[in-house]
Write the structure tokens for this entry.
Amino acid sequence: MTPADKRLSLAGEFDWARRKVAQKIQDYEARRSAVRLVSVTNVSEGATYVEKSIVTNVSGQQNVVTVAEYMNGVTTSVNQSLTQSKASADVQELVKTLTKQIGALSTQIPEDKSKQMAADVETLAKEIALPEPRRKWYEISMSGLKEAAEKIGEIGKPVIETVKLLWPLLLP
């Protein structure tokens, strides 16, 4: 048991400590969420050179800074898939053209649409690289590209035209 006068003194000291702990927690959270821009350069086998900037916070999470950087990664992935592919030169060239067209559109359309189109062309390229490509995946990827291009309007017409040229080559 603590005498009453001593209890009041202890309560005052605890209030001071609570404020100090709360301040330290706020400082820690501020440092923890601090963000910095880090340049990363990767050189992988076959002399593929990729340079990008990423946002890193103290916890180590990384996010792609821009859609353009995301598209650079997709373009690299598509090119690597096509080098492993046994598809005809026409098919490979059309997929490369499609990737360039989507990259050009990425700055003019909403981010979610450009990422969706990029994912579709990346899936298409990966499927082409398989020893036994699956027809259904071609259909899904090309249909997704066509639908997305139609939704964005006039600027999506080049993508639609390229998909129309690619369709009979992959889905005879």
Notes: The chain has a mean pLDDT of 78. Helices lie at 4-32, 67-84, 89-105, 111-129, 135-152, 157-170.
